[in-house]
Model the fold of this input.
Amino acid sequence: MLAVLDTLTTLSAVMPANIDINPNDSGLPGISALRTVVGAVMTIGLILSVLALIVSAVVWGFGSNSSNPHLASRGKVGVLISCGAAIITGASVTLINFFWNVGQTVS
Done:
């Protein structure tokens, strides 16, 4: 038992007490291009969410008017999924920043 305590004491003396690493904007070349690409992908995601919403609403309406409950149900689910995708795409930066800040408070 004493050997284990000595090992732990030695390890705590060797290990650094405080590691401070922050994101670096200039650490790698192409970071600004990557930000541009991510912004473009977010735009494409939002445009595709709008397209999915329109198609799902048409399917929902067609299913309701043709007395086809399965098709109407699929349209409703598509509307909800496309709205959820738009919410997640639009809020992705805010969500990541929130969880980054939560992670920074963990000690």
Summary: Residues 36-107 form one domain. The chain has a mean pLDDT of 87. Residues 60 and 75 are 4 Å apart (CA to CA).
